[in-house]
Amino acid sequence: MSKRTMVLHSAYQEQFDVPDRDLVFYDQPYPAEQLSRITDVHLWSPLDGPIDRLPEIITAMTGLKTLRIGPGRVLPTVITELRQGDLPESMEELFVHVGERTLVWPDVVVPNLRSLYVGEPFRFKNEHFPRLQALSLYPQRSLNNVRQALELPLEELNLLNVPTDEEIFRLVEPVGLRRLGLIGGRTLTSITGIGALPQLESLRLKNLTSLGDVSELATLQQLESLNIQYCKKITGITAINDLPRLRRLTLVGCGNIGLARIEAKLSTLDWVNTGATT
What's the CA gap between 192 and 169, in Å, rounded? Predict the structure, then answer.
């Protein structure tokens, strides 16, 4: 089978029209050996065919590494009614999009999970993800779930909304993150204070509508990848000239920020994308 396998009910086969995907129907039997070879799964259902429980066929995928749940008509109970043993212990990556206002993780430990993305507000206990290294989540306004997450052995944190100002850099400073993403929000006006994270290797800034001065980028001497998208008020872009280890750069949808001033630097990079930015 190919790397990505779609799991759906056989009644909706004709509604799923992506030719480069293998299909497994959770209402039909499959040999255990065939299921054990599947490593990457996307659980999907159309709007007229809701799924309310994790199909047992996924539990039988003993070699599963990556599981994507939704979007589509996948109900929150697929997560909230999980029982210990429903998820294969081999699983390392989990992506959840179930459209719930706040999703509460049940009392289920995923012992080998390394990467978790939850596309809605999320409450959990650290003990359920003992080996988690990368987390993407919507922070509570109080940032309590972020503070809790920072007690995990994280190397990467992506906040899908930033409800605070430059305080965020002080909050994450003690953890030693290597990769940071700040994705969406109207409160952050500069990255003043990011110099407290000199070990960062990757930084992503997206849809930060009030973000202005980014000149403190120059303090991130270990930065290898910088991705800034749809931040139309940024200034201080020449700081990119002072990043000796930078290899990949994305500047998309940022308007007129003065690309000519970093043109020489761009010519030295391995990969550059400057769409809708001048």
Answer: 8
Residue showing tokens 């043109």 = 263
Q: pTM of the predicted model, to two decimals?
A: 0.95
The CA distance from 90 to 112, in Å, is: 6
In the structure encoding, which two tokens stand for residue 232, read together? 């139309």
Task: Write out the two tokens for 229.
Answer: 């998208």
Q: What's the burial of 103, exposed, middle or buried (CB within 10 Å: 0-12/13-18/19+)? A: buried
228 token code pair:
């800034």
Query: Phi/psi at 4 (nearest 5 deg)?
Result: -100, 125
Where would I find the H helices in 81-223?
A: 144-149, 167-172
Q: Which two tokens stand for residue 208?
A: 């930060």
Helices (H) and strands (E) in the chain, counts: 6, 14
User: Could you read off the pLDDT tens digit of each residue along the chain, which spans 278 residues?
Assistant: 457 899 999 999 988 877 788 999 999 999 999 999 999 999 999 988 899 999 999 999 999 999 999 988 999 999 999 999 999 999 999 999 998 788 999 999 999 999 999 999 899 999 999 999 999 999 988 999 999 999 999 999 999 999 999 999 999 999 999 999 999 999 999 999 999 999 999 999 999 999 999 999 999 999 999 999 999 999 999 999 999 999 999 999 999 999 999 999 999 999 999 999 99
DSSP E strand stretches across the chain: 5-8, 22-25, 40-43, 66-69, 93-96, 103-104, 115-123, 134-138, 156-159, 179-185, 202-208, 225-229, 248-252, 271-273
